[in-house]
Please model this.
Amino acid sequence: MQEWLEVALRTLTAVVILFVLTKLLGKRQVTQLSVFEYITGITIGSLAAYISLDLEAKWYLGIVALAVWVMISFGIELLQIKSKWFRDFIDGRGRVLIKDGKIMEDNLKKERLSTDELLEELRRKNAFRVADVEFAVMEPSGEINVLLKRENQPITPRHLGIKVGPEQEPQTVIMDGKRMDEPLATMGLSREWLQTELDKLGVALENVFLGQVDAYGQLFVDLFDDQIQVPAPSQKAALLATLKKCEADMEMFALSTDDKETKQMYEYCSEKMLRVIDEVRPLLIG
Model:
């Protein structure tokens, strides 16, 4: 067999085996490498190169070594799942770097982290002053997570005592100018509804690069032509405005009538409409 053909066959075999074994190890092997997994990744890559290019060696020995390394890594992952002590031994523990706005210098030295590196990581978390940080910890993966002091945290509807509606996953109903029937059915919508919404926006289906429907049934589109501006959906704002107009009309009717019972009826309806508006406002804003 010619050398180039043998190298091609060995490489193809190594790629297939490497893909299967990597799938066996799971996604964590790719996204969050521990120290041992980092070593395993380097070794597996070296063994794959050995299988592909070392024509004088027996290629199946490389596959045996590759399988042993993967099985050891797989076994260690199982032990980490079952034993916290073993997990701490392999991955290590999180270490506190900042507490109550004070840098823990000893822990910083133990992690071999310079002050500049710490400040850089804080800036990535939108913390530009150490004094604003309540708590910062370096995770076993090497990532630094930050908890800002309460007065420096962003204000949320919960802080203001506002109840907001649940946010459901948006569905992609148009992709690359093609209609997606399954997401439409998931939302309980029809092709006719989609076409009507596109007509309201003044765009054709084939000109839409991406179209998504949110939990409130609003269609958002991104066109192939970025120069064309598409108006944002305004159904929720229009509904809120309609409710406010109804309440204002009933209040005006109450003021314009002289009949006592009619006035009380309009005032009662106006008060009920105000309560309805207060309840649905969080769902219709944003």
